[in-house]
């Protein structure tokens, strides 16, 4: 998927005033398994560290724009 097409993806995870919770991390992981790419948005009054979200979900941070981030499933190396 090209970088321009990230703009066309609709956010499937919205982070509210509670911020990143364990339930939210689990939901992002589940969606990454199903979709391979997930777009996440958060409220203005919520502090979110996109790099921390990527590490917590074991994903690759593809893009951050404003209050939106795009994550991709990390590819597993086959031995």
From TrEMBL:
Superkingdom in the source lineage: Archaea
Domain CRM intervals: 1-79
Glycosyltransferase found in the keyword field: no
Keyword Zinc-finger: no
Matching InterPro entries: RNA-binding_CRM, RNA-binding_domain, YhbY-like_sf
Keyword entries, A-Z: RNA-binding
GO molecular function: RNA binding
Stored PANTHER family: RNA-BINDING PROTEIN YHBY (PTHR40065:SF3)
Protein name listed in UniProt: RNA-binding protein
Record lineage: Archaea, Methanobacteriati, Methanobacteriota, Stenosarchaea group, Methanomicrobia
């Amino acid at each position: 998927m090209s970088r321009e097409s990230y703009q066309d993806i609709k956010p499937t995870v919205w982070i509210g005033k509670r911020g990143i919770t364990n339930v939210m991390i689990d939901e992002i992981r589940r969606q990454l398994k199903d979709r391979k790419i997930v777009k996440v948005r958060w409220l203005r009054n919520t502090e979110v560290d996109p790099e921390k979200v990527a590490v917590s979900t074991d994903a690759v941070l593809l893009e951050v724009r404003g209050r939106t981030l795009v994550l991709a499933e990390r590819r597993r190396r086959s031995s």
